[in-house]
Specification:
Layout lengths: L4 E2 L4 E2 L7 E10 L2 E9 L5 E13 L6 E11 L4 E3 L17 E3 L6 E4 L2 E2 L1 H4 L7 E5 L4 E8 L4 E5 L4 E6 L6 E3 L5 E10 L5 H10 L1
Antiparallel strand pairs: 1-2, 3-4, 4-5, 5-6, 6-16, 7-15, 8-14, 9-10, 9-11, 11-12, 12-16, 13-14
Pfam family, one: DUF6807
InterPro entries: DUF6807
Length: 204
């Protein structure tokens, strides 16, 4: 999905190779959604089977709400390689996971266990990451689940974060392998500091 990085064409290039995600089954009740999807190539060939679950809950203390996304991927028709544009030569483009685009980036502070700022957060292996707008105000505290990740953070032109599964190397799945990963978010209509973000990240 998206524009692959092709060095011989001077960067990201739109190709006629966009596949589809087809819903195979879907159930929803209250704040819970479960779906089985099949990722298909342009010609319809199955590539990935995905089991996806999304839950939304008000926090027990009434202070905001929590969103949880979990996915399990299984190759559908042969070995599967998940990689980022960095593997094709695009500098610092470690996209490869749940990519969340948010309002901003004007006025937003990025916090991690390693410190403050987008440059500090980009590539951090912090167990949590917080995005805070002190005057709007709002906060989103994120914690990745599954394999250890590094955070891909974009603060120029638009604000987006991705717990990258492929920062250090592509992920290779053989037939029958399963890759489970997810993201938990605490969403508040107020600003938090680093200490509270760390506590919320630990609770997520």
């Amino acid at each position: 999905m998206g524009r692959p990085h092709l060095p011989d064409r001077l960067g990201p290039t739109l190709l006629p190779n966009h596949g589809t995600q087809a819903s195979r089954s879907l159930s929803a009740s209250g704040g819970d959604l479960e779906e089985r999807l099949q990722w298909r190539a342009t010609d319809g060939t199955p590539q990935i089977e995905e089991d996806r679950a999304v839950t939304a809950r008000l926090r027990a203390d009434g202070d905001g709400w929590e969103l949880t996304w979990s996915s399990t991927l299984t190759p559908a028709s042969g070995p599967l390689v998940l990689a980022s544009p960095s593997d094709q030569g695009r500098e610092d483009a470690h996209y490869g996971g749940l990519f969340w685009r948010l309002p901003g980036p004007d006025g937003v502070t990025v916090l991690t266990a390693d410190g403050e700022g987008g440059a500090t957060a980009h590539g951090s292996a912090s167990p949590w990451l917080a995005l805070v707008h002190p005057t709007a105000p709002w906060s989103v505290v994120l914690r990745a689940t599954g394999p250890a990740v590094r955070w891909h953070v974009r603060c120029s032109n638009y604000l987006a974060v991705c717990p990258s599964l492929v920062w250090d190397a592509p992920v290779r799945l053989a037939p029958g392998d399963r890759l489970a990963f997810g993201l938990r978010a605490t969403i508040l209509d107020r600003a938090v500091d680093a200490a509270e973000a760390a506590a919320l990240g630990a609770d997520a």
